[in-house]
Amino acid sequence: GAGVSQTPSNKVTEKGKYVELRCDPISGHTALYWYRQSLGQGPEFLIYFQGTGAADDSGLPNDRFFAVRPEGSVSTLKIQRTERGDSAVYLCASSAYRAGEKLFFGSGTQLSVL
Amino acid sequence: DQQVKQNSPSLSVQEGRISILNCDYTNSMFDYFLWYKKYPAEGPTFLISISSIKDKNEDGRFTVFLNKSAKHLSLHIVPSQPGDSAVYFCAASGGGAQKLVFGQGTRLTINP
User: Taking the CB of the first residue and of the last residue of chain B, which one, N or C, has fewer CB atoms within 10 A?
Assistant: First the structure.
């Protein structure tokens, strides 16, 4: 029983570049979440998938951020024209429970935009 | 607006004593509350939860108390152990929102 897997664990990029962050949820979990955690803060909600569809994307900060989950399993968070303020740890979580309960988190991707 | 607040950024406790971590919330629609623990370079891991129909939930050394009228919950760890040193996050959900809202975290240090 593997947990939630996120790749890469670290990503360094230059301002203006495009990045993709990948999340492999726990097998069978239908709910998948992306959160962002800045230094000294708690995880901040970005987007929630139930199956293949984005059920709530209210946390995406602007249209540079986009996420997909085409087959209802692996998800990719895509950030266009990265800015220095995008630097943070991006956390993915999945859940088999009622949405909003007991999320299982991956170790995150540390994104650094230079 | 910060709907879930942990007002103590850090807490230091002697090994063997009780650790009490506090959390306040403002959204009266929240009906489910969780505590997560986070070690450096790892994702948060679930610790304990409580539904709004209860005022206490216990699991081994960990007890969560919920005071709905005060919109306050606390996590008690007794006895505290060195391995409990971590950042603890309070989280809440409810009101039809399919997501957890997290507090800022409290860094707990257990001193030998």
Answer: N
Strands A109-113 and A10-13: parallel
Pairing of strands B106-111, B10-14: parallel
How does pLDDT run across B50-92, given as a tens digit for each residue?
A: 999 999 999 999 999 999 999 999 999 999 999 999 999 999 9
- Closest Cβ–Cβ partner in B44, B93, B104 for A101: B93
* DSSP states along A5-52: EEE-SEEEE-TT--EEEEEEPPTT--EEEEEEE-TTS--EEEEEEETT
Write the single-letter amino acid at A65.
F
- Return the SS3 of B93: strand
For A102, the closest chain B residue by CA position comes to B46
CA distance B88 to B32: 17
* Strands B19-25 vs A53-56: parallel, antiparallel or unpaired: unpaired
Nearest-CA distance B1 → chain A (Å):
12
B44 neighbourhood in chain A, CB within 8 Å: 43, 91, 105
Contact with chain B for residue A40, Cβ under 8 A: yes
Residue ranges of A 48-77 with Cβ closer than 8 A to chain B? 48, 50, 55-56, 59
Instruction: Inspect the interface and report whether the beta carbons of B100 and A56 lie closer than 8 Å.
Output: no
